[in-house]
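CORE FACILITY INTAKE
Project code: CF-77B
Contact: R.S. (postdoc)
Sample description: multi-component assembly, two entities in total
Requested service: structural model of the whole complex
Turnaround: standard
Below are the sequence entries exactly as provided by the requester. Do not edit them.
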Amino acid sequence: MKELQYKDFSLKTHQRNWQSGSVNLCQFELTFKCDFHCKYCYSDCYNKKELIKKELSTEQVKSTLDRLYLLGVIWLCFTGGDPLAREDFFEIYDYAKKLGFIITIFTTSYSINEEIVKRLQKKPPFVIEITLNSIRKDTFEEISGLKDSFSKSMQGLRLLIKNKMPLKIKTILINDNVKEIWQIRRFVESLNLKFFPDFYIRARLNNEQFPCSLRLSPREALLINKQVDPQLSFFKECSRSDGKANQEDSPFYCSAGCGSSLTLTPYGQILFCPFLRNECSDILTSPIEEALIVFRDMRQRGYVTDSKCRFCQLKKHCFTCPGDAYLETGDLEAPIKWWCEMASLVSDDYSKTKDC
Amino acid sequence: MQKKTLKKSAIDLSDSLVFKKNPDMVTRKIEGETILVPIFKASDDLNCIYTLNNCASRIWDMIDGKNSIDNIKDKMLKEFDTNEKEAERELKSLFKDLKEIKAVI
């Protein structure tokens, strides 16, 4: 028997799957139901009673998990909406644990109570990722869209900390909370956790553009990133400087583009990109393998227009993707002005650092 | 990739011992590799993942709460190109490791 450090195992598996195109990660949107209606949320447009009724049943979810298991998926992320908003969440979770998935749960601390923590403690997830957008009641509730949600959310957070649950907190930075960033950072670090600011805002899945108006300016976003992480390691880690972006004439050079991950929607659609909802197959009627072939062809199709992005020299510093472009412009090859500006700033910053 | 040596503890493994798999350890067979995933561990303590080679994987399959170590050895001798001494050594080493990580009970 060989004992591998977890990080080595993870790296080895991801590298192998990137080469072979096998899927090892699934982002499973269990439900779009959520108590919150966060103003920047891209899926809140589906957080409606009449749509939630159409979501997969418990048995359908379980049978889907069986298929993911057989496909060789290792990492499973339960997301939404708020997956904990499903009444059958623990039936699904326990089933997934029994199958041996390494599970991450994206949720709001608003959903967390003593009973939930007790159940999670028995079979802990790999990590619970929650979003904390403010430590002030007024800002918090302005963003979450739910009155009196602050104190219950903080209570949920305290419960997770007290019970030493594996936790990651991220903060979505928008115009509403940017002034509080350092307070939030101090608070998160006082919990001995790393502060993760996130400024990645996209249009809603029904193409509603409102969330985009909440974005910080690219300059402000970059400045904050530099203050939090002077090395800009996020940009370096995600940088497409491996040449892939420049060599391959395809707009898909994300993990979706490499074919090692897939997304499942609450309605049972299989997607290769969480933001390209039109390119899907139905898990209830089609084999996943068939969908993967279609997705591979999609990824390999290359640019079909003379998009500015296609020949852009800043491509390796740019983090836009066809999914974002589609939601924002209706054209998956179109540039997004915000990302163009950001890429230009990051590139300038790199040049200056190089000169130094 | 870092290979680590498992700490061996003094575990007495007689041939008549029968083990069963710990239900908290899940087996996954992915792209020809058998891995053991401890489901009771979170990111903070999931430091390691265990992989089994072909022979160890076959032995793992035979651990069912009924087969004794001796039975498993007999089957190994039939299925693998090995001798009794080697099989015994392989088996005892694997069971020590599996006990160590609480994969068998």
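Facility notes:
- The CA atoms of residues 36 and 50 of chain B lie 5 Å apart.
- Residues 84-100 of chain B form the longest helix (17 residues).
Invoice: internal transfer
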